[in-house]
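Hello forum,

I keep getting stuck at the same step: I have a sequence, I want structure tokens, and every attempt I make locally crashes halfway through. Rather than fight my setup again tonight, could one of you with a working pipeline run this one for me? It's a single chain of 383 residues.
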Amino acid sequence: MAIKFAPNKEYTFTLWDGKVIVKPKLDMKYLYVEITSRCNLKCEMCFKQYWEDTEGDMDWNLFLKILDDAEAFPELRMIYFGGIGEPTVHPRFMDMVREVKRRGFALGISTNGTLLTDEMMREFAKLGVDLIYFSMDTVPTAQNAITLGHITSAVTADKIRKLVRYREEYGTHRPSIGVEVVVTKENYQQLPEMAKFLLDMKVDAMLVSNLLPLTPEQVDDIVYDGSVDMTPILDELYKIAHNGLYIKLPKFELRTERQCDFDENNVAVVRWDGEVAPCYRFLHTYKEYIFGREKKVNAYSFGNVKEQSLADIWTSEKYTWFRFTMKNYMYPSCTDCDLREACDFVKTTDIDCWGNEPSCADCLWSRRIVQCPIPQYMFGKFF
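Reply #2:
Ran it on my machine without issues. Output:
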């Protein structure tokens, strides 16, 4: 039975030689819901090809409970269909879209776009779906085009053009349209051409992320290890951005400062089976390669919404402490630690040498090298 949320609860934590009192609030701003972990594609650089997890679709009644629970968060700005799966393969995808909008929530969606029909996209515009991000890693006309997981950029571009036309018919400029691009040595030179292509199609935003290698072979494809001079590419992108395309760029070298979009924007992610993770990174179990060094990422959950309310999980002692330590960046930096080659803590995300569990000490998201769509930043305005 779910515990009723106590608005005046507080926790006292020991912090070095003192104590700190933390009062949890119902201040979640973005709720990511992985309505399915299945996908219709097999993209080579996707987590799905390498994780250890079973696949599944979110139960309809569980989905409804999550929406019920979301009502408890007064600062919630958007529900976002994301995670590591293709939302449109869920057999009740459009029912879920309609239910979110019926309840008055803002809705964002990440998709490869290949399963979208004209009828679905027209309904997106009619319902006022707020944000849709498409995956596309090359310009369709490029001679050296790559197709990750058999996604053809030409098909994706065609879907985008139609969606732009449908939203213009309704005169609402909804959904806002973005494109996610994963940068590798194969496509980095195409980025300016890609930006111009998207601008011509009336796309609103371009989110650029670096590749997070999931196999030893993929390590050679990264461009943030000093092997590529990105300066001329970035200079061109800055010029294009002045013409009206919002471009969110990652870092292309390891820097000291850390800033996690998931922490800074009070995000929670609900997996298809109800487990609540703090971010995409801890949603599933897989191996990643940090500048060539293998690391095992183990899925981590702070509770299951089948058993507790989302408010109880969000304000639990363990989740509250995790967010407090992460927002204040009170964890070590394994990525540039002199002892990383001889340290057992860097082998998994289970715990770090400061006792944080799970460990974010080797996370390339917090270094802004890898990025995911956080709606607040997408268009220089709040969603």
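The domain at 11-367 is CATH 3.20.20.70 (TIM Barrel). If your local run keeps crashing, start a new thread with the error log.
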